[in-house]
Amino acid sequence: MQVLKQAFAVCTASALLSIPFAGNAQSSMDHSKMDHVKPETSQTIPSMSDGEVRRVDLETGKITIRHGYIKHLDMPSMTMVFTAKEKGLLTDVKPGDKVKFMVVDEAGKMVVTAITPAQ
Questions:
Q1: pTM over the 0.90 mark
Q2: Over its length of 119 residues, how does the chain's per-residue pLDDT go in tens digits?
Q3: Residues 29, 47: one domain?
Q4: Of 24, 41, 96, 111, whose CB is crowded by the most CB atoms within 10 A?
């Protein structure tokens, strides 16, 4: 009888161990094979944005641009002041010019790294 009880206990324990525990199911998953999808904005490749120059300050290297939605920064349309990466970028633009420009976020500061006339 004792042998029968031990065999029953072993079979019961084995059966219980083979049943996944709902609270621990996630930790037993192989996360390396999961398709991690990030929000679209974090996967968006920077691209040129459309805008209209409102003001240029060559001395300070600042440019005010009224721009459309900037997808890679998830920035809505607005008019704002940007800092030029290099003051020389601003020498060929003037208020009223339609432009395409590249802007990046450098530690919270919006910096224009390229600007060309819109075509």
A1: no
A2: 554 455 445 454 455 455 555 554 444 555 455 455 444 444 568 889 999 999 999 999 999 999 999 999 999 999 999 999 999 999 999 999 999 999 999 999 999 999 999 98
A3: no
A4: 111
